[in-house]
Specification:
Length: 148
């Protein structure tokens, strides 16, 4: 990916600015590829993330705070994400009888089945995104990214 070519400049960019722009362009491209992989399932990347978090609970319910803490992209509209997944039958909401403000969320069997299919589509997208890297390069890239 040639940053200067993409942003259509012939001017030499400072290394720091070029690096930040490069990271943004890579993030945009990876987001686009993964979003396209999830499009047939009619779920967003954030909804996919919620489903993965709930599956990771191994049957134990999670509250909104737990889900929000574990989200890859932190956001304030977790309730809206849950509502959309609820409408699709992928999650269920359990309201505590003793404390009506306490709401717990679990993934349904339909959610687990759908997530399994999504996992395959996302794995294919990840292979496309990372096709130009070998394992050693991926480890090196991760090591560099850990410095952030």
């Amino acid at each position: 990916m040639n940053v200067e070519k993409i942003i259509k400049t012939e001017k030499q960019m400072p290394l720091e600015a070029r690096t930040i722009i490069h990271l943004i362009l890579v993030q945009n491209k990876t987001t686009e590829i993964v979003a396209n992989a999830l499009k047939p399932f009619e779920v967003s990347q954030q909804q996919f993330n919620v489903l993965r978090i709930l599956r990771g609970q191994r049957g134990k319910p999670a509250n909104l705070s737990t889900i929000n803490e574990r989200m890859v992209a932190k956001m304030s509209n977790t309730t809206r994400l849950i509502d959309k997944l609820l409408a699709r039958g992928y999650v269920q909401r359990i309201v505590c009888e003793a404390n009506r403000r306490k709401v717990e969320i679990t993934i349904t069997e339909a959610g687990i089945a759908a997530l399994s299919k999504m996992d395959k589509a996302v794995a294919k997208a990840e292979k496309v995104i990372l096709q130009n890297f070998n394992k050693k390069e991926l480890k090196q890239l991760n090591s560099l990214l850990d410095k952030f």
